[in-house]
Design goal:
Strand order of the largest sheet: 3-12-9-8-7-6-5-4
Number of strands: 12
Largest sheet: 8 strands, parallel
Helix content: 40-55%
Low-confidence stretches: 1-27
Order of helices and strands: EHEEHHEHEHEHEHEHEEEHEH
CATH architecture: Alpha-Beta Barrel
CATH class: Alpha Beta
Distance between the termini: 38 Å
Strand content: 15-25%
Mean pLDDT: 91
Number of domains: 1
Number of helices: 10
CATH topology: TIM Barrel
CATH superfamily: Divalent-metal-dependent TIM barrel enzymes
Radius of gyration: 19 Å
Length: 305
């Protein structure tokens, strides 16, 4: 089951990354990519977070400035080929008819659904709350399969109060493995995001990756703005080879000292050097999204071309 596991011994990169000069077992082999990098541009619905009704009723969704249907139309207006439909903005009651309606709309407008996302926590101890998290993940795998979304970005979670990180990682890995078994039957990738908690550093990310079952349906959601370490770019290089979905933020926050403009050419180069082939999704989290997003989309178009 661990056929791809190996030891990366004594390299300068490993020593720099983990703060040691000793040989270390750091991760499973990333997928071998023999073709040059190729990227397709997408936009995350989260970019308009303040304008959506979260898990709303039909009335609340209709009254909001942005809905998934309006967002898909916006992506078409921006000449995008794809859109990420973040799970938070789906209706409170998701029906098969609603999912099919999104699939029809995106196809008619020439938009692919690049992926979707859930806000799960797999660090929870055994019990009803954990069971609910696993059930929600299976449910969203079904939703993604119905819509034709190839990937779901998932979170690891946070260490419960009074617990240890080691135990939390083991439970997280168990949750991922259990979910992967189901995802494989539906043809949906699970992409673990570097999203704080027990994935706040590349060392933590790689420790989880190394324990996950060897599955072609697992990889990393590369989020360019989520490492708050002393050198986010160096740390993004460490996870880039495992990327199956990429999100680009326009700011970074080294050591939690405050946001600064991201070096987008450097970030895209990291993905190109890793020979990443797939969606590059702008996730805009700053002010004035309607005014600013088109500018950043144009910059990314030029960088990935």
């Amino acid at each position: 089951m661990k056929s791809r596991r190996h030891f990366l011994a004594g390299t300068a990169a490993a020593a720099t990354l983990l703060g040691t000069s000793s040989p270390l077992a750091i991760a499973a082999d990333p997928p071998i990519r023999v073709q040059p990098s190729m990227m397709k541009l997408s936009l995350a619905a989260y970019s308009f977070n303040n304008f959506f009704a979260r898990r709303g009723t039909p009335e609340q969704i209709a009254a909001a400035k942005m809905s998934l249907e309006k967002f898909i139309a916006y992506c078409a207006e921006q000449q995008l080929g794809a859109a990420e439909l973040t799970g938070y903005y789906f209706p409170k009651d998701v029906t098969p008819e609603y999912l099919v309606s999104l699939k029809q709309l995106t196809h008619r407008l020439g938009i692919e659904i690049s992926g979707t996302a859930i806000g799960n926590n797999f660090c929870l101890p055994e019990g009803d709350a954990r069971d609910a998290q696993l059930a929600e993940c299976r449910q969203w795998i079904d939703y993604a399969a119905t819509m034709g979304a190839p990937v779901i970005r998932i979170f690891a979670g946070n260490v419960p109060k009074g617990d240890s990180e080691e135990a939390s990682i083991e439970r997280c890995v168990a949750g991922i493995n259990q979910s992967l078994e189901y995802a494989a039957t539906k043809g949906v990738f699970l992409a673990l995001e570097n999203h704080g908690g027990i994935t706040a550093t590349p060392k933590q990310m790689l420790s989880i990756i190394d324990k996950v079952d060897d599955s072609p349906w697992f990889g990393v959601n590369f989020d360019s703005g989520n490492f708050r370490t002393d050198d986010p770019y160096r740390d993004l290089e460490a996870i880039a080879p495992y990327t199956v979905n990429a999100q680009i933020k326009v700011c970074v926050d080294p050591n939690h000292k405050g946001k600064q403009p991201a070096d987008l050419p450097r970030i895209i180069k990291i993905l190109k050097d890793a020979k990443y082939r797939g969606y590059v999704t702008l996730e805009f989290e700053e002010e004035n999204p309607f005014e600013e997003i088109p500018k950043h989309l144009q910059q990314l178009r030029e960088l990935i071309s």
